[in-house]
Protein 1
Amino acid sequence: MEEPVPPEVELDLARYQVRRGGRVQRLEKLPMELLTLLAERRGELVTRAEIVERLWGRDVFVDADAAINTAVRKVRRALADDSEAPRFLETVVGKGYRFVGPITVISGAEPMSSAPGSPGGSEGLPGRMGAAIVSKRSASGRWALGAIALAMVIVAVLAGLGRLGARAGKAMESVAVLPFENAGGDPEAEYLSDGISESLINRLSRLPHLKVIARASVFRYKGKHPDLASVARELGVRAVVSGRVSQRGDGFSVSVALMDARENKQLWGATYNRRSSDLVVAHEELAAEVAEKLRLELTATERTLLAKRDTADPEAYRLYLRGRYLSNERTEAALRKAIEYFQEAIARDPRYALAYSGLADVHCTMATSYNKRAAPREAYARARAAALRAVEIDAELSEAHASLGQILVQFDWDWAGAEKEFRRALELGPSNGVALHWRSHCYLALGRFDESARDSLRALDTDPVSVMLNIHLGEHYYLARQYDLALEQYRRALELNPNHPNARPLLALVYEAKGMYAQAIAELEAAEPFWTGTSRVKGPLGRVYGLAGRRA
């Protein structure tokens, strides 16, 4: 007897997940809530104002368009839908969206199919899934649902009684740490304000149940004074941390604030005045305090991870912060100076595993980006030695395992070894975007497209405005021959940076694969100024001219 084919799309409210063709599609909270709303009102126009009210409440005074657009893209991606020829989610220009495709909703008792004309479908039933659903239920099933309903009422009452600060007093499961302001404006102190922000991001990223936005996405706000509620919606987080740093003689001051974006109010603020010799301790205190104010219920192991001291030497820590600050500039001169700072930090504390990991990352970057002056074989050898030493010193350092995995992917092509290192890195740091990104590369090389997409989407969830990650996801879709999704992803990358040199040539490849030669030629010609004197564009352009029947 043949097994029944699963419905194409199932929305399982009991498990809070969406399945396509029987396979679970990863979908974060915001797009999941959006899909639920649209499925509830299948066939109806749902306006953007209604979406804002459902997802964020009525008292929203900022533009949520960017967050809605991101959520819509994620829903379409989960459903393998195409915005230009939608099978599920239709855009009503200037108004909102309409869910038009078949979907089976599992409400916690029995599945409810919304396919037109299907037995037991939603036709003739109330539009809201929260209303009564006519179906055959046993007495025990009705009792169970009644018990669940009663429990929900009790929970709601307790939540109302226990509300202190944020809604229902629940832990905030997502946070963005904005770059702390250098209050004095001294360029020599810039590394400290950036370093405190980055240290807080890295420490919070060690916690398994907290989504922490990556450095690249939050540092685009550096030097600006954005509306924090808008930032939260753009990045898809509940909480935002901001602050400022001042240096005074042999001491420094850190002012920090935590905002609940959903309630649009500040939950907590504090100022720390410390001596320079207390820099390491101050960072540990700050991370612990923020975690507490986020109302995270931490296990003993998680508290240990959060409070873990990487070095006891404040000067070694300063040197490490300077190295990280320069390594993020990614120019050859800055990277070479970063190497010096990491080496000086190691000289002061030979067991400073984090400094070895930073050194490994810089050598990897030198090998790939500046190989005219850093021969790849030599640079990767230095990177490997530093990464192995970091793991030897501290086997529970997520960054070190991610560094080692990156080398195994980029230079060794040791996919099994790399996967092992990335798995360990993510066990120790669930928000480690570097590990997610490079493990996605690993899976892509092995043709494991579903796993590659999963990691790419997870990485992008914590770093939503990273051009590199958007381009990588586009490459994934291209190699998986999901050309419409690839087009959407490359267009997103160009929205973020219209002058990115790689986005247009890659977009042209997708147009070529779809037989859209005129569009491919237009993208390649637009990319030519970025690749003068190279064959990066000329070769593909000549090929597409030939396919289009044109002379070069």
Note: DSSP finds 22 helices and 14 strands in the chain.
Protein 2
Amino acid sequence: MWFEAWGALFDSSIADSLCVADEFGPIAQECCKTILPLLFCSTYSQIELLDTSKVGDEQSEFEVFIFSAYQVLMSLIDFQGQYVLPLILEAMNHSFEIIMSKQPQLYTEGDVCDIATTCNLFLEIHSNLIYKIENLEQLQSMYSPLFKILNILPQITNNDAGTVVIKLNSAIRTLFSCLHEYESQITNQYINQLIIQFIQIATACSNTEVSSKVIDLLFELILACRPEIYQIPIVQEILRNGTSFINKFPMVLRKYVISGMSDIIVLPMPDSIFKQANYEQNATGYKLLIEENVIQPIVQCFQTNTFNNYRDLCKTIQMIVKNKEDLNNLNKQMILLPLNPLMNDILPKTLPVMNIELLHYTLTLYYNILTQLHSAMDEQSVGNFIEILFKIFNGKISMIIEENERHSNSSLSLFIKILCFFVKEWRYRNKNKSNTLYISILMKSYSLITVDIVNNMNIKTIGNSIFREGYLLFFRICDVYFEELSKNYQFFGMINQMILQGFSLPDIELVKLIIENVLELNMNKKLFIHPTFKANTVTFCIQLLNVLIKNEHSQEETIDLLYNILDADAPSLLQSFNIVLHSFFQQHPQLTEQQKNDTTQLFANAIDLPTFSFATQQFINDMNCYFN
């Protein structure tokens, strides 16, 4: 009740009066002195008599008590921040000093006094305090508990270490943004000390997960405080002696360091705008750094036929290119400088002799590079790489699908995704012009899907990503090259076949994907009213009705497609469907006249999708009764 009373008072309109607020200053201080010992672990023993047990998701007596105290503290911060802020900072520091004096083995999971619980509480209070900070000294005081925790991370062996690092991440990011507002010599000295501290922690900690997150924080700090931070001694040393800095870290951590170094070189300005002067200044050094630490080790893998590090090296490049799609082309060209020899020379020579596992890693790498840096990549080089992949997979599709081996499936699926991305992105570069390479790859892709992939679909392949990616590629090609493909009437037969083939399998996700893409193709290219498609509409709709009667899955989606086809270009939905029903009855002479009349009557009031869906569901039920 004490907490509720104080909370109500601080939230009341009376407390908004400045004169009252000034008088409440000493009272707020006294209140804060009462609450703080209850909130920090150093004096939890004072309330140990409270019940900590709970049922289900209900809060325990202890949790309710702590939450009430916390709410009053937050009201105090809003109401009398200038009085209580020093007290809160002092209490947090004192509490964390006590934690530091504990032995690491005492940090036990579930203990209300443990490091993770205290850290969580710190972060909650931190989010409400940060906007009250007025100078760098207060900021340093506020964050000193946090960095004391960082210092003992290497000593913590239980799960608390990983939990704490994750929790610290958001708080430290806020610190970075605040530091950038204080442009002073003392700020730079503080940041210099923080970076050195991060490096010491990351190299000393035996927990790889913790160390990797600390390395991420190190480079996030540099990026958050750029460009001024590039002038401080430790950052200059990192940039000047990149390879030596990387070698300070264990092998398992180097991919995080290399990726971080790539970011601070490629993104030297807060707006990520890379000017020609930046490029000329950094290009040679950047190229050498990535060549020494990534490209040359990859070459050595193939020269020595030893691939222990190959996967990690591929992941390093994936981390380098991650989230770079929106950069301008000059930034991307910088990243591609050391990667071009790899993609245009080294990998094309080694692709044909790779085993399936190495091929999987390589295609994962290439797909990531392509999707992120494509705007700065040369079409001919990408096309040459794709042509090699066509040769590798030629004649092997049936075997890969039949064997259903993980890496083989994934490699073929990645190849199809690469094709789909190429068809989509390079269409704009080839708009209004003839390009032999692009058209050649497009038609080979069309053949791959309509001949090799679809003909191998069966009940055993349900859920296989190869077919989902294959359908996406098929509809992408249809959209890009519709005008040319539609000149051949067989193209529309292929669309119908692809749809019916996909619907024949109880793969709900595949059916949804097909319908979504068919409707999109119709929206873009008016598929349903194309003369050749319309000529076969009745036959196709009957086939869809037969699918509905036979299959229990995906009925709602199939009905939706049927409705859209019938409603595309007809005087009325009913008239259009009556034509389909008439042909359907001719295919099923076992139906009596009464059954035909009853069926026709079902659709008498079908004027929109809801009424059509209801009638069609009844139609399906009736047909199953009539035919069984």
Note: The radius of gyration is 33 Å.
Protein 3
Amino acid sequence: CEILGFPKAELNECGYCVGEDTGLDNDYGKNCAGNCGSSTRIDCYAICDDETIKNECGRQGITQCQLVLDSYVEYKLVHASIERCEIPGEYGPLEYQLYAQSSDEKYPFPVTVSQISNVFIFYGVPATNEEGTLEYSVKICDSFHYCEMTSKRSVDIESNRNNTAKDFLDLAARYHNVAGDAFSALSLIATVMRSPQNSQFLQNRALQSMLDYTVKMLQKPSQTLTNGQISLTFHVLSKYVQFSDNQLLSQRIFDAIYRLAEKSMGLHNPPDAMTIKHTIHNILTFRKNDEQKFVHPNVLRAALRAYKTLLKVTAANMALETQVTFGSEDNSEDETVTVVTRNTSLEDISISVKLKDGNSIVAKVTVGDELKKIFKSPWKCAPNTDCESVVYSLTLFSKSVLFPQNKHTFRLTPIAEYSIYSPNTGNEQRVKGLLKSVLISITLVGNQTAGGQTYATECLYWNEVMQMWDSKGVHFTGFTAGEANCWAGHLTAFAVFRTDQSLQIGVMIGAVVAALVAMLLLVVPIVCIIQRRKDKLAIGASSQRLVPRHLE
């Protein structure tokens, strides 16, 4: 249920996600006789008269589908099929997409694009875990865009001793790209990239090829995208950027994710919730191999833009009075959590995240009356458009994964970002110049006296234009019950720091000295010019007195 975007839902006895997240009761999926799959869908249609019950009965067939896939040798051609689906024709044509998941990965990843055929032909994906296995499943979507995942099938994978196998796949990917099939090329490159024994040269070459195929696809004005193609491309780009040691290449990959998200919105075919969740997770963990490694600010800027564009896509496609959570608040593996809500008005919001060490961090946002008034329904979300609802999000970063480290400071709190979006378009609303937009409270995790007497506690915000932490329009109000409190006149990312005041004093002294020097450089030439003119006038007067009158 969490994979499908319903973290608070539970599976009922029929295998459906039920609860407040989905709005489905516990009996969902049962036929008129109260049984789960005891009758075929044809029998169910014969029994059920009510149209709603027919729809519920009809969906049972997907859970009965079985994936047929035997063990295979990595990088060699593999055949798989989905069988025993008892689905009436009016629900077709069905689309099938093959997914796989390793025991050391949190989410499944797409192996193929979506297709109408129930037979899959692909090159064997290598295993990355010690068991040498992968769990395969199939995402099946009917003509009403209702999608479900089949049960998982564990498959044993044998190593390929042919050293040229990966080179062959790389070459095959190039042929697919030349033929205009960028998605098959991306699928092959993803298979090559999964190997844990790749050299850095091969990784960078594969990443460059992957980027070239994606850019070529994005540059085609007539290129349409299916949901399966979008999910595959998002996965390949976001998953394997962490293997790059080339900063410029990483920046270009994040730019491609941003452009792909914008293109999907332009085509009115946004990625599904599962794809967005997986992509956001990959973006937020792209530094997990070496979190201390220096990352160029341009790379972080591109990653942050890609991340925020995915939030924009989410905001544009949310239903009224719904909430979407990226990351799990109760799972210590997720150290960044985002909650996006669409409501008729702005409401206070909070997030609590349990970390790996067992401690919890909290971020709370109390919305000011002035801000509530601006976004009170109906409000101007576009020059000629009134909106009856508003979308807002709160993200809690336990680590500064998408923000550069601030030199000569100690960060005392996690980073909290609060944003407001217009519904249907997802455009982020810029708020600034207010006296008190929001009150932010964030758990204190650092030493309140870090740095000593020369340091002061300040609440700073992330200035996207200047690409630096700034204090303008943000004020620290003190500590309360283990939390640091700030109020701000605008919306962005916030955190509380201990900043070195001696550096600021040095900067002020330097500024004063520079101003005095500038004044001297300006005044001295003026004084010299004036003095020269006085001297010339004096010489002229003296010479006039020395000339005899009869010579004039």
Note: The chain is about 35% helix and 25% strand.
